[in-house]
């Protein structure tokens, strides 16, 4: 995993807000890539019943908890965010799976 660039010094709330907005833009770009993976998964998986994979979900959540702990960010918060992200991704993938097979 690539480490992000260090944050520049932030002396004012304008500085802080500029960094938050920049980071949000980067997160959205990364989410677009993640959802492109869901598009590919929907195309590749031949059986709708394998879209939901609880073993894989548990592995993803465990990995996020480990990464969060290593990064020094709140593990419960990251776990909750990723729980929602994974469930949203599954729902999205199911919709895409259905659209591809109409």
Automatic annotation (TrEMBL):
EC top class, as a word: isomerase
Swiss-Prot/TrEMBL keywords: Isomerase
Name the record gives this protein: chorismate mutase
The EC number(s) this enzyme carries: 5.4.99.5
Chorismate mutase domain mapped to chain residues: 7-97
Species of the source: Parasphingorhabdus flavimaris
InterPro entries reported in the protein's UniProt record: Chorismate_II_sf, Chorismate_mutase-related, CM_dom_sf, CM_II_prokaryot
Coiled-coil annotated residue ranges, if any: none
PROSITE patterns registered for this protein in UniProt: CHORISMATE_MUT_2
């Amino acid at each position: 995993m690539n480490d992000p660039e260090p944050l520049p010094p932030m002396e004012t709330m304008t500085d802080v807000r500029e960094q938050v907005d920049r980071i949000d833009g980067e997160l959205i770009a990364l989410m677009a890539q993640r959802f492109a993976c869901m598009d590919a998964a929907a195309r590749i998986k031949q059986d709708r019943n394998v879209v939901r994979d609880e073993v894989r979900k548990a592995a993803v959540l465990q990995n996020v908890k480990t990464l969060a702990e290593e990064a020094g960010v709140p593990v419960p918060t990251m776990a909750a965010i990723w729980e929602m992200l994974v469930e949203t991704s599954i729902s999205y993938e199911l919709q895409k799976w259905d659209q591809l097979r109409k």
